[in-house]
Amino acid sequence: MRESLATSPAPVTARALLTDAPAALGLTVVAGAPGLGRPITHPRIQKSGLALAGHMVGVVPSRLQILGETELSFLETLPPDERARRVRSFFALGLCGVVVTRGVPPLEVLVDAADTLEVPLLSAAERSSGTIAGLHAVLDRLLAPRSSMHGVLVEVHGLGLLLVGPSGIGKSECALVVVERGHLLVADDRVDLVRVGDRAIGSAPMLLRHHLEIRGLGILNVRDLFGATAVRDESAVDLLIELRSMGEGDAEIDRLGLDDETTEILGLAIPTLRIPVHPGRDMGVLLEVAARNQLLRRAGHHSARAFAGRLAAGLGLKEG
Amino acid sequence: MNDSEETFTVVNALGLHARAAMKVVQLAGRFESEVELEREGQRANGKSVMGLLLLCCALGARVTVRAKGADAAAAVAAIGALFAARFGEDR
Fold it and tell me: Looking at the predicted complex, does its ipTM rise above 0.95?
C-alpha cells in the first residue's frame, strides 16, 4: 500500500455545530460564547447527571454534555449554594459545551457558570432523546475523517474513478471525454473526501461544483452544457487511476493486471491503476474498460488471473 | 531536488481573481518545479486555475508559495514578483 496523498482539516467545535446542525434541532447559544472554539473530539455525547451529583469520574471534557429535564429537576432539589458549587466544579472541568434540552430557559446558575468559565451553554428545542440522536448524526459527519486531494472525480458505470497525476497530464480532458460518453462529473481539480463507514466519498468544493477547466476552452459549466444527468454532487471513490506520461517509469507499468495495487486514502485501501497517457490513446475507452473490469473483479471474476489459470493449464501445470 | 518557500501579500484591489489566477498559472507552468500556494491552511496546485480560485485570496491575503524541483527558487521569486506587480493591474 502506498502512502496517503491527502491532507487533513480543522477541529470540530460548538461553533461548527451551530452552523452545521439541522434547524430542526433549534440549537442556540445561551451563554459562554467566548468558549465556542473549544474542540469537540468525540462523536458521542455524555449525560451529566452523576457529575451534578458530585461524581466527576468519567466526565470527558471534549465530549458534549447534555442536561435534560431529569438532570435539571435534580439541580432544583439542591439548596442554592450547593447547586452553584456543583455546577461550577462541573463546568470548571473545561467542558467543550453543555446542551440544555427541551428549550427550557437554563437556570441562572448555569448561565453564570458558563459565562465565568467560558463554557458554551447551548439550548436545544427538542427533548433529550431527539436532541441526542440529532447531535450524534451531526457529530458523526463533522468528525468523520476528511481530507482533500488534487485530482478529478468522475462516475463511470456507477463506479467512482479518482484520476490523479501531474498538472497538464490531461485529467480534466479525461473527465470531459467520459462526460461526453454519458458518464458523470463529480469534481475537477480539487476533490474533498470524507470517510463514511468503509467508503471514501468525494465531492467538489461548492465554488467549483459542476465546473471543469479545459486548456484552450476555459472554465466550463458541465451542468449547463450537458444537463443535470451529466453531474453528481458526490460519489464514492472506488478506483484510483494514476495518469502518467508515456516513457516516464514505463518499466513500472503493470502489463498483466495480476497485481492488485492499492493506495491509502483516509485509512482505506483504494484499488489503484497506473495508466500511461499519450496522444492517440483513447482515454474514454480505457477508463470505461477500467470501470467494467473493476466491476467484474468485485463480482469475483478477475480477468488477468483467469487468463493466468488458462495459461497454467496450457503449460500442463496445475491451475491457480 | 530543491525546496523553496516564501509568503507574499495580495496587494491589488481585486485580489486573486480569475484573470490574475490565470497569470499565476501561466507563470508557474513555465517552471519545471511543482508549485503550491497556501492560504490559511487551504492548499492549491499553482498550475491549476480552479485550485487557485478556490483559495479566495482578497486584497491583503497572505499567501505562501512553495516550490519543489530544480528551479524551485526561481519559481517562487517569479510568482512573488507577479504578486508585487499587482498581477499587472493598475491598482
Answer: no
